[in-house]
Task: structure prediction
Amino acid sequence: MSRSTSSEAKAIRAAAKRLLEGRPITVTTDRLSVVELAKESGVDRNRLYRVHEQLKNEFIDEVAARSAAPPPATPRERDLAEQVTALEAQRDKDQALIGELSADKTQWKEAAEAAFRIINLLEVERDKVAALKDSRDLTIERLTRELSEQKVRDQEYASLGEHRASVTALPGTQERRVEGVGDPSSSEHDPQ
Result:
């Protein structure tokens, strides 16, 4: 191996390490590919494929191994994963409860609307009953007054006794004739 080849190999190994650790100097993407390895190491890609094929393959194998199996979790990562699992379970319970509460809210809202409709109908019926009661009271008052008046007329009529008179309009005139029952002296003309 020539001196330039060994310095290229060192540059390739250092670039691979930086890329795999996620701290590249030259490359700005997070991709782990041969193109990024060539850019990071400063070695021509064709030379990387022809001269440094073994280093290129080692890099590809390491990328594949890291992609296939995640690194072992630290105790802190395990604790965080357990917390995440617990929080996800709590979130699922909370979402189920929110669904139930939303259904309850909808039912209560519908019940309240139905109650308001019933209250409105009852108020209309109450007003109708009050109007009927007022009408009944006025009718009773009118009939009571008419009955009292009729009683007074009946008492007056009864007090006349045998001196009752009948009033008859004379045909074709405005005059009225009063005829007494049983009293011949009560025959008079009543001008109007």
In short: The helical segments are 3-21, 34-41, 45-50, 53-68, 75-160.
